[in-house]
Amino acid sequence: MINSNKHRITGIRASLEVCKSVFLKQSLAYIAVIRNLITMITDSHKLHIYLSILLMFVIQGVMASEYSRVHSANRGIPINDYGSVPVYKFTDSKGKVTYSTSASVDFIRAEKIAIISPPSSQQLNASKRRFEEMRIAVDEFDVARAERQVVREQNEIKRLQRIALINQAKPPVVTREFIYPASPYRLRKKHGDHYGIPTHLPSRRPHSTGLSLPPSSFPATFH
After folding, report:
1. Positions of the region Disordered (predicted)?
2. pTM recorded for the entire structure
3. Could you tell me the CA-to-CA distances from 28 to 23, 69, 110, 125 in Å, in that order?
4. Domains in the chain: boundaries
5. What are residue 90's DSSP bridge partners?
6. Cα 12 from Cα 75, distance rounded (Å)
């Protein structure tokens, strides 16, 4: 039981070491793709979508595949359908551990462990297909964004035209000169006037009927 656990731990360590190298190579390849995108794409919005989807594919594809390979090596299952690289672990009398792809009899103990192989051509083609799908999706997003921009511009033009029609329908504003209000006429009363306001103001004359009336027909204050 102890030897089997040691064998599993050794297989995991060796697989992780090779996983680091493979992951580094794939990371450098993705970095090269990103640099090409930055040089070719001038639209920052489109570049942001490209990088977001590319990051999603990197996390989903690379990490999942590498961890699945490590667990497959731990269970003793072949790494992939295209064969795995045979690696031998050798331990000498002093406890020094050495890994090699060829068998040797100079060591006390030798163990064969499974280790991941470099990405195959089919895996690379699958990555290229995923990247092509990503590029098509980003192009569709860019076309949809351009269509929405056209619709927004058309709506803005219609809004400005509607405001212009509303302003034309309003009556014109006419400004008039300020007219000072005139004070009403008021008869000033004299001191000692106990008869009140006369019946006819000075600005108005009594209506003449054309008849000769006697003086007694007029009020006393008329004269």
Report:
1. 196-223
2. 0.31
3. 9, 20, 35, 17
4. 2-151
5. 98, 110
6. 10
